[in-house]
Specification:
The protein has 301 residues and is an alpha/beta fold. It has one domain (2-300): Indigoidine synthase domain (Indigoidine synthase fold). The chain is built from 12 helices and 11 strands. It has helices spanning 5-12, 34-48, 72-77, 87-92, 102-111, 129-132, 137-144, 160-169, 203-215, 236-252, 260-271, 275-300; strands at 2-3, 17-20, 52-59, 62-65, 81-82, 97-100, 116-118, 148-151, 174-177, 198-200, 222-225. Strands 1, 2, 3, 4, 5, 6, 7, 8, 9, 10 and 11 form an 11-stranded mixed β-sheet that branches. The longest helix has 26 residues, at 275-300. The radius of gyration is 18 Å and the shape is globular. Bound molecules: pseudouridine-5'-monophosphate (PSU) and manganese (II) ion (MN). Residues 21, 23-24, 28-29, 101-102, 119-121, 123, 136-138, 258, 261, 265, 280 line the site of pseudouridine-5'-monophosphate (PSU).
C-alpha cells in the first residue's frame, strides 16, 4: 500500500482527511465526463472544508491511498472494480488499474488511519435476495472497519428494507444528518419511505457519537446518511418504473455479480435523460462536504 505525500503529511499533522472511493468516478460509476466532474467537485468540497482528499485505487499492482494528479486519468479510465476481497489478488497479480468499491475503500482507509470516507450510495441487499443471494460486500466491510462512511443512502434499485435490516443485524450505527423528515434517503431521491434509526443535528454531533462508540469499545464503522440536494433530486415515485425496467433488462441480459450495479446505473441514466447522473454528481459533492466537516470535528476533539 502506498499513502500519498499529501495524505501522510495531513495524518502526521493531525489534520482532517477524507477517503474517497474510485468506482463512482470511473466509467463503472458515471459516464464521462460526469466522473471527472464529480471527482473535481468532491475534491473541492473536501479542500474547502480544510481537509485533504485521499482517493483510493489500485494502480500497477500497488494499492493507493491518495493519488497524484498525474495519475488521475488512469483512475477515471479504470475498467474493472476491486472490492475488499480482490485487493490481495490485485496486488499479487499486479493489476494495471482497478477502481475500488466502498468495501475496498473502507478497508484501505482503516489501514491508512483515515477515519472518514465519502461515497455516493453504498451497495446493499439486492431485490430478490432470496433467489440470488446478492448482497454487496459493502455492508460487512462497513461493520468491520473503524471508519465513518458518508453516503446518500443505498442505491434505490436495491431492497432498502432488507438493507436496513442487515445494517441492524451487523450492528452498524446509522445516523441521519439533514434528512427529510427523518427519512432514510434513497440515493437520487431524498426519501425512501423508510425512517433513519437516529437523526443527528450536526457534524459535531456525529463526532460525539463516534467518540462515545470508541469509548464503549465499538471497533466497527458508522454510517452517516444525508440526502441529495433538493434542486437535483429525482423523486422515487418517478423512478419506480424506470428502476423496474432496468432490473428486468439486467435479468434478461443474464447480468450477474459485480456487473449488476454498473449495468443498472447506466440503464437508469439513459432512461432519465441523464437526470440521475446530475443527481449523482451533486450528491457525491454534498457527501464529500459533509464528510470533511465530520473529519474536521473529529480532528478538533
Ligand atoms: N456509489 C455511487 N456509484 C457507484 C457506487 C457507489 O454513487 O458506482 C459503487 C460503489 O463502489 C459500491 C459499488 O461499493 O457500487 C457496489 O457494487 P456491488 O453492488 O457490486 O457491491
Ligand atoms: Mn453484488
Amino acid at each position: 500500500m502506498r499513502v500519498s505525500a499529501a495524505v501522510s503529511a495531513a495524518r502526521a499533522g493531525g489534520r482532517p482527511v477524507v477517503a474517497l472511493e474510485s468506482t463512482v468516478f470511473s466509467r463503472l460509476g458515471l459516464p464521462a465526463p460526469a466522473g471527472e466532474d464529480a471527482r473535481r467537485r468532491a475534491y473541492e468540497a473536501v479542500v474547502a472544508a480544510g481537509a485533504v482528499p485521499a482517493l483510493t485505487v489500485v494502480l500497477d499492482g500497488v494499492v493507493r491511498v491518495g493519488v497524484e494528479d498525474a495519475d488521475l486519468p488512469r483512475v477515471l479510465a479504470a475498467d474493472r472494480k476491486a472490492g475488499e476481497r480482490d485487493l490481495a489478488v490485485a496486488v499479487a497479480q499486479r493489476w494495471p488499474a482497478a477502481a475500488t468499491t466502498v468495501s475496498a475503500s473502507v478497508a484501505l482507509a482503516a489501514a491508512a488511519g483515515v477515519a472518514v470516507f465519502a461515497t455516493g450510495g453504498i451497495g446493499g441487499v439486492h431485490r430478490h435476495w432470496a433467489e440470488t443471494g446478492d448482497e454487496s460486500a459493502d455492508l460487512v466491510a462497513l461493520a468491520r472497519h473503524p471508519v465513518v462512511t458518508v453516503c446518500a443512502g443505498a442505491k434505490s434499485f436495491l431492497d432498502l428494507r432488507l438493507t436496513l435490516e442487515r445494517l441492524e443485524t451487523l450492528g452498524v450505527p446509522v445516523l441521519g444528518l439533514g434528512t427529510d423528515g427523518g427519512a432514510f434517503p434513497a440515493f437520487w431521491s431524498r426519501r425512501s419511505g423508510f425512517a433513519v434509526p437516529h437523526e443527528v443535528a450536526s457534524p459535531a454531533e456525529v463526532a460525539e457519537v463516534v467518540r462515545a462508540a470508541r469509548a464503549l469499545g465499538y471497533g466497527g464503522g458508522l454510517l452517516v446518511v444525508t440526502p441529495v440536494p433538493e434542486a437535483d433530486e429525482v423523486p422515487l415515485e418517478e423512478l419506480g418504473p424506470v428502476i423496474d425496467a432496468a432490473l428486468a433488462a439486467a435479468t434478461d441480459a443474464g447480468i450477474g455479480g459485480g456487473a449488476v450495479t454498473p449495468f443498472v446505473l447506466d440503464r437508469i441514466a439513459a432512461a432519465t435523460g441523464g437526470r440521475t447522473v446530475t443527481a449523482n454528481v451533486a450528491l457525491v459533492e454534498h457527501n464529500a462536504a459533509v464528510a470533511a466537516a465530520i473529519a474536521a470535528a473529529l480532528a478538533d476533539g
